[in-house]
Amino acid sequence: MASQILLVESEPDASASIGQLLASGGHTVTAVKSFEAASLPASRSRPDLLVTAVRLGRFNGLHLAVRFRADYPGLPIVVIGDETEVGLPAEARQLQARFLPRSTAPERMLAFIDDLLSGRMPRDLVSTRRWPRRPSALPAHVAQAEARIVDVGYGGLCLKCATPPAPADNPVDVSLPTVGMVVTGVCRWSRPADDVHSWLCGLELDTANIDTRKWRQVVDSTRES
Q1: Which of 31, 86, 35 is nearest to 58 (CA)?
Q2: What pTM did the predictor assign?
């Protein structure tokens, strides 16, 4: 069954281009031009995905994400904008939306959206990290299963585990036995690892509920092994 996508884009050429791309992927697209016009088709039939441009006249796509997040909890939302706008990817993430650069190649954009619609969590195409990551080989345990840390940063880590991680925004506890620490976070993206027998998961840490000083010491002392 075709997925129902609501596209909100004020520029006619961009709307036609993105709409045709989504339709080529087998999706049913309803396109509107403004923030105000977006609510009516959604009220008639809840979409499977909202795709919105950032620039929408008096309002913007982030405002629309706020409204739709309140009205339709759990609805995947994609915000399309200029990747040079500082802070935009992080702002979208705070609203539980995903950011796509307008410059993304069509095939990558379609693959990203297909992954979202299928319940997978594609990796961000623009980094929202505040700090760089350091390669690591720390052993870990998730739900009593063995795992391994691939890299670490002050606000997150990349985890390699045998089974798919928890759904997006569900808390995940990661035990680090060699440093005597347990950290909690949510999986922001996931994909099969290159060896196809395990998964990679990008975990954003809940820094309000961990010993941040100790965690920073772990990150600062980490070296690739």
Answers
A1: 35
A2: 0.60
